[in-house]
Design brief:
single chain; 453 residues; alpha+beta; Four Helix Bundle (Hemerythrin (Met), subunit A); paralog of FGE (formylglycine-generating enzyme); 3 domains; 4-stranded mixed β-sheet; 3-stranded antiparallel β-sheet; 9 helices; 14 strands; 13% strand; globular
């Protein structure tokens, strides 16, 4: 499979689209997600679709049918008022009922039947989209339910891309290299002024519940890295014995390092000459020093930051660096402004199968000059995943509410594997601090001196 070479479709719709434009946007977004799903599941044989390539991940065929089952439940039953097509499989594809490690033992639909099921659901969904009013009920207002389902599918597409990275065997995916749009030396860090800003959203039509509501947040002045931390910079931490020194690690992180024998980011290993190579989608290559570091856990990111005498930014600091425009005092939809993402702004949509060089995408910089806040790598923050003031679960508790607490850390910004529909300045991701198979990196921060602007 070749990764999509077209420009990514626009992100979530702005608040002012008319109903027919919303229908077109919803249809295009659903179809784009299905194109990607098809590509990720048609590039390997049935054995690879039904195999479990890691106990951390589901078989690809489970993700495929789960996508169709969620679409059926929300768009055919809840929105369209139709009877269930396959009620007997609801339990099989309930992500909360069956942990990933147990899913291969379930009575899964075989690949051909799964493909037929998701195609049948999609055909009916497009008919529902043509006739259902996109106002009145909150679930359908501004096409929310269709956008939610498209985001769900794209999130599972990213999950399936992670499975492809974990899969052993020859490469099944190809894509062009990301362009080198870096434009010379950059300052190592940017000062973000102290004061209030608006965090979250109450107006983005397809924003999910944990992004809501918009609220004022006070943030003290701080410095943040201009770019994500690179492989070359992280390698210096490794070479300095970072994985052997408990001074840099949170206690639970140090225990995890020793228990699992960690010594470098996931997929790195020494080559015969003492350098570092990595496995990337079935290809072994030299670790590129100029790319953002990838496949590191929160514990690794936190340890590196401590080693440098810095820290991870809080979630509020990250969002202020990404969205705050000091000229207007307003918060933008994206770092570059309110315009939908385009290829010159960020590395999104699986157009490439790796991050771009650090310092790339000057046209995607924030108003303060911070680069690559959207795309390339998910960025760990210091913050636990918690609800915003005034949070209300919608349309179901299991998307966010059941995960709130100190067990999960927040990631922001998306990665090269994220579609624009599931990535915006307010989008929140979260995971356990031990997770490394995800497309995660980070940048660091430090407090500003008293009296800094």
């Amino acid at each position: 499979m070749t990764a999509p070479d077209r420009a990514p479709l626009a992100g979530p719709p702005g608040p002012d689209l008319d109903p027919e434009a919303l229908r077109r946007r919803a249809a295009q977004t659903l179809l784009a997600a299905r194109d990607r799903t098809h590509g990720l599941t048609s590039c390997v044989d049935d054995h690879d679709l039904t195999a479990q390539h890691s106990p951390l991940m589901s078989p690809l065929v489970w993700d495929l049918a789960h996508i169709g089952n969620q679409e059926e439940q929300w768009l055919l039953r809840a929105v369209g008022g139709q009877d269930a097509l396959r009620p007997e499989i609801d339990s099989v594809y309930d992500a909360f009922e069956h942990p990933r490690a147990e899913r291969p033992a379930l009575p899964l639909l075989p690949p051909a039947e799964a493909r037929g099921y998701v195609a049948d659901v999609r055909g009916r969904v497009l008919e529902v989209l043509e006739r259902v009013p996109l106002d009145g009920r909150r679930l359908v207002a501004a096409g929310f339910a269709f956008g939610m389902v498209a985001q769900h599918e794209q999130q599972h597409d990213e999950t399936m891309l992670i499975t492809h990275q974990l899969r052993r065997g020859p490469a099944a995916l190809t894509a062009p290299e990301p362009p080198d749009t870096s434009d010379g030396p950059l300052p190592p860090e940017v000062l973000v002024p102290g004061g209030p800003f608006t965090m979250g959203t109450s107006t983005e039509p397809w924003a999910l519940d944990n992004e809501r509501p918009a609220h004022r947040r006070e943030v003290a002045a701080f410095h943040i890295d201009t770019t994500p931390v690179s492989n070359g910079a992280y390698a210096r931490f490794v070479e300095d014995g970072g994985y052997r020194d408990p001074r840099w690690w949170a206690p639970a992180g140090w225990d995890h390092v020793r228990e699992h024998g960690l010594y470098a980011p996931l997929f790195w290993r020494r080559d015969g000459a003492g350098g570092w190579v990595r496995r990337r989608f079935g290809v072994t290559e030299e670790v590129p020093a100029h790319e953002p570091v990838l496949h590191v856990s929160w514990y690794e990111a936190d340890a590196y930051a401590r080693w440098t005498g810095r820290r991870l930014p809080t979630e509020a600091e990250w969002e202020k660096a990404a969205r705050y425009d000091p000229a207007t005092g307003l918060s933008r939809r994206y770092p570059w402004g309110d315009a939908d993402p385009a290829p010159e702004h960020a590395n999104l949509g699986q157009r490439h199968l790796r991050p771009a060089r650090v310092g790339s995408y000057p046209r995607g910089a924030s108003a303060l000059g911070v680069r690559q806040l959207i795309g390339d790598v998910w960025e760990w923050t210091a913050s636990d995943f918690l609800p915003y003031p005034g949070f209300a679960a919608f349309p179901y508790r299991e998307y966010s509410d059941v995960f709130f607490g100190d067990a999960y850390k927040v990631l922001r910004g998306g990665s090269f594997a994220v579609d624009p529909v599931a990535c915006r300045g307010t989008f929140r991701n979260w995971d356990l601090p031990v997770r490394r198979q995800i497309f995660s990196g980070f940048r660091t921060a430090r407090d500003a001196a008293p009296g800094a602007a």
